[in-house]
Amino acid sequence: MIIMNSLKKIMKGHIVGLILLCLFASAPTVWATYELSQSDIKANAPINKLTQWTDDLTVSWEAPTMGSGDILNGFIYKWSSSATALSDDDFNIDTGNDGFTSTEPYAVIKNKTDLENLDSGDLLYLHIKTFYLAGGSQQTYSTDVVVGPFMIDNVAPTGSVRIVDENDNDITETSNSMLNLKLAASADSSKIYISEALPRPETGYDFVTDMTWDLTEATPGEKTIYAWFEDSVGNVSSSPVTDTVTLLSSVHISPYTATIDLVSNSTQVFVVEGTSATYDWSIINEVPETSGTVAQFSGNSTGVNSVTVEGLVKGTFQLQAVGGGQTLTSGTITVTESTSTYDIPLAVGWNLISIPVQPVDTAIATILSGISGKYSIVWGEFNPSTSAWKSYNPTKPINTLTAIGPNKGYWINVTEDCVLSVTGNAASKAVDLLTGWNLIGFSGDADTAITTVLASISGKYSIVWGEFNPSTSSWKSYNPTKPINTLTTMGVGKGYWINATENSTLSY
């Protein structure tokens, strides 16, 4: 029945074959000879040789000589990646073969568009079976004759180029016109083309993973290295990969460009390299992301060879150093603010917490989504003048506490032990206090001595309560007039009550 289905498909349009099929459909299938001879098969592309082939692939053959009484109907064929003969099911079922040819000259053509994406590791075989009527009536196939492999490579190699230092670290600036290049490419790459400009040069080099490149244009400024890759059969990458470095003069500000992170490291030292001369420094071309001063000097910036710059708000700026009859200018320096994630452990019952970062989205439902179903209510934004609270209950449609942020304390009642993870930017370390009790949060980078945190409001508060223990309903406290206190540090993600004796601002 498998052969019957296949025959119906491949003999469509061949009236003689169809009549014979109808006449002898009940006859048993016989497997016999008449397989093609490899010497009778010709191809217009090399076999078993890696080659670039951009034309149609044509395989043709001479029909075997039929014995007396046997009738040749044609040939069934299938393209495959298999070097071994295919099973009858793979080859003969309706969807298993690629076609049938019964007209001389016998040939199969693989369209060139089907070959465009073949790479060096792709092997292509053509499987052919002779189909004939044994004794003029019995439908019969020969064994599978495999032609190939056709090792066609029409895909250019891919790769990368990196400009590195002597330790293979990527660099963006250098004062050396001899560049170290780190190259990587597809396994079949055999040649590389390097240039400092477009288009691709005519002459290439044998592919290596490490090479040096002496810049032909050695005036200070931005330099781009272009690289193209070629394989053994001539496929060349159409577009280059690139890497860029700034070539500095012998005397220059270092680092020439830099990124200052307000969270991880808010200061950066800059020095004039190539001389011990002193300079007067200034910050120029400030572009804040929103508003404010992007950066400031920390320490002396006049008559020195190096300065320390502190980032203040997100944005960009440049440095200028004037001295020794010359003016030096840095590249663009960027002030960023990476996000941090804090995990706040919560125990069953009431917990007094704070949000130690500035969330991108301050909506309370968003911040608490990670512990959804594990808390019942949140209280916050206590007003000491009215002794009033705002609250949030996730089961109610309307709530007075809709957003939460840093430097404030919040009570949260959780129904099971869990961890609240909060991600955001660095929070302000200044808290406005009103006379009386204030519920605040601490946004320091780590647990800090309470005397250090409260130094800016010395004499303006009477007592601090914190680290509430829900299991014992007890507090730790700090009174600046007492020699011994149970509350000695303030911690990240915790809330504190502070009784201010006058309106003031706590800065730490």
Could you characterize what this model shows?
With 508 residues, the protein is mainly β. It has four domains: 2-150, Immunoglobulin-like (Sandwich); 159-247, Sandwich (Immunoglobulin-like); 252-336, Immunoglobulin-like; 340-507, no CATH class. Helix content is 6%, strand content 45%. It is built from five helices and 41 strands. Strands 1, 4, 5, 7, 8 and 9 form a six-stranded mixed sheet that branches. A hairpin with a 2-residue loop joins strand 24 and strand 25. The longest helix has 10 residues, at 15-24. It is elongated and about 120 Å long. The model is unreliable at 1-32 (pLDDT under 50).
Distance between the termini: 87 Å
Gyration radius (Cα, Å) is 40 Å
Shape: elongated
Summarize the amount of helix as a percent range.
Answer: under 10%
- Total strand segments: 41
**Helix-and-strand structural type:** mainly beta
Strand content: 35-45%
| Mean pLDDT level | 90
Outline the biggest β-sheet: 6 strands, mixed
Put simply, the count of helices is: 5
Q: Which residue ranges are poorly predicted, with pLDDT under 50 across at least 5 consecutive positions?
A: 1-32
Q: Give the count of structural domains.
A: 4
